[in-house]
Amino acid sequence: MFSKMATYLTGELTATSEDYKLLENMNKLTSLKYLEMKDIAINISRNLKDLNQKYADLQPYLEQINLIEEQVAALEQAAYKLDAYSKKLEAKYKKLEKR
């Protein structure tokens, strides 16, 4: 009877020991995975800082582009007004010419 009890307890302890080994392995793998994720996060952070710096470096040029765009729009409006005015003058000239 004691040998069966010893066998049973040995089996239980072995199973518990195997469970702890499995948990230890799972913890090690999880730790490695988190280290990989940390490295990825660090790289993403570094790349984001680089992109923000590049955007900041481009900002003066973007402002110049916006200013040029506004000036082009104003020039285009002036050209339309000048075209309309020249058409009116042409129409007046043709009326005067017919007299």
UniProtKB/TrEMBL annotation:
GO terms for cellular component: BLOC-1 complex; BORC complex; gamma-tubulin complex. It comes from the Eukaryota. One of its GO terms (biological process) is endosomal transport. InterPro entries: BLOC1_su2. GO terms for molecular function: gamma-tubulin binding. Pfam families: BLOC1_2. Belongs to the BLOC1S2 family. This is Biogenesis of lysosome-related organelles complex 1 subunit 2.
